[in-house]
Amino acid sequence: MSDAFDRAVEAVVFASPEPLTVEAIRAHAGEGDVRGALARLVTRYRGRGIELVERGGRWHFQTAADLAHLLRRGRDEIRKLSRAGIETLAIIAYHEPVTRAEIEAIRGVQTARGTLDVLMEAGWVRPAGRREVPGRPLTFATTPEFLSHFGLNSRRDLPGIDDLRAAGLLDPVDLAFDQLAVENLGEED
């Protein structure tokens, strides 16, 4: 029974145009041990040209990471996000749900409407409701597509400050300000 059920789960995930939750897979494949079938399929596809992965609680097939470069040759180069887009996406990912005013307060500059539009068109950011304060501002959060695109299982997998510093991704000016703050705290003692 498990081989036939594993094949049904495999077919459902393979044919789906988007990643599926365990519940969605069960709705198509029928009652059975979906998680067990997924675990067996992960093992079966390990080391092959495609692999079965879970990102943000959703399952899909993807090209093996070491072969992804083969598929990039024929594709048009995608525009890179602007610095404002990257900063805005990072703020949303680390602070969600967050309002435009909160994004602007963290960045220290006004955020253009187009910046959020680009992130929503990419499928990485979505409106997440309204804050229950005067004016009821709209909040923003990341999507499962964001997790999938960046290879994250959940937001808990986002790098911490020490990881970013070790990778050299923090601006040297920011590091100088951090060092100054530490030195000033030491003088106050």
Automatic annotation (TrEMBL):
GO annotation, biological process: cell division; chromosome separation
Superkingdom assignment: Bacteria
Gene3D superfamilies (UniProt xref): Winged helix-like DNA-binding domain superfamily/Winged helix DNA-binding domain
InterPro entries with a match to the protein in the record: ScpB_csome_segregation (IPR005234), WH-like_DNA-bd_sf (IPR036388), WH_DNA-bd_sf (IPR036390)
Pfam families, sorted: SMC_ScpB
Keyword Cytoplasm annotated: yes
Keyword annotations of the record: Cell cycle, Cell division, Chromosome partition, Cytoplasm
Cell division listed as a keyword: yes
Transmembrane segments: none
SUPFAM superfamilies the record matches: Winged helix' DNA-binding domain
Protein name: Chromosome segregation and condensation protein ScpB
Organism from which the protein derives: Sphingomonas endophytica
Organismal lineage: Bacteria, Pseudomonadati, Pseudomonadota, Alphaproteobacteria, Sphingomonadales
